What does this fold into?
Amino acid sequence: MSGTLSVEVRAVTDVAPLGWDALTVDVPGGHVLQSAVWAVQASEDGWQPRFVSFTDGAAALVLTRQRPPLPGFLAYASRGPVAGEGGARGAAARALALGRWARQEGATILAVDPELDADAAFEATLAAGGFVPAEEIQPSRHRLVASWAAGTAEETLFARLSKTTRQRVRSAQRRAVTVREDAAGERLPDLGRFLDAAAIRKGFTFSSRRGFLAWWRRLLEARRGCLLVAEAGDRFLGALLMYRQGGHLATAFSADDPAARPSFAGTMQLLRWEAMRLALAAGMPCLDLGGVDITGARERPAPGDVTWGLYEHKAGFGARWVESAGAHELVLRPAVYRAGLVARSARRALRRG
It folds into this structure.
């Protein structure tokens, strides 16, 4: 990253300009959490969407929220600002521009976390602008990505899967497991039910009742999501919900029925293989299988780690481990920020008491 680009905020509106998603979702590094439909969902959750346009022609969705009685507001560029054609250099320049804008507007803190491969120069540029690394806001710091060259044959792609993965795909096929796209989202409540059960089993925080079903439906209606479901006759076995962004498909949520695994082994392998076939047929260069890291365990897992099994499962598709740039925060009003932390700790103590 040779030198920092000169970029400033050109305009900020409360309504998405025409062609918004072309600038924030469809470009390299684009993300659905920068989309107009996500802005609608976030507004129902109490955030104020701000649609920011930059002088270099790029854009970023920034969500803001006031915390009365404290002055100022929180600002969060969810999976932004996106890289676009400018790559890491452009993303860094836009993050700095957002920092200057947020300071001028009276924000307390600004958080950014673009979908971007790890880049030392990006980190250095943000550090020079006063940003500091923060715990991830979105679920994962890393991704496993299966990619292929243009013109790759399906047979060649299948051969790249590990022997175990190929065997499990064929096992599910022999057991009459079928996979279809559920464009209407009929199986979304079932996916939510499986994810809720998984959260209880594994001890992570998730509840489909906290707005997720509404978000998933909006996602499918806007054609920004793709839901694949696995079934055996009328029995629902599992599902894979993906984002359409950056010219590829990216895993967002997946779950299956543990009780069905003995009878329908290989269901999740078949689901992911069908997702690869779908991406290949659409001329996409890769399938993002999502991450496996969790809070407190952001590195590549090793045998015996809690996420080792999921890592082996995804690596079996020939996916490579991709380290991503982390989330960063810029504290603009330190005294107000510290007061907010104290107030939040007090509220948590009261709830525990």
About this structure: The CA atoms of residues 132 and 282 lie 39 Å apart. The first strand starts at residue 9 and ends at 13. The chain is about 35% helix and 25% strand. The first helix runs from residue 20 to 24.
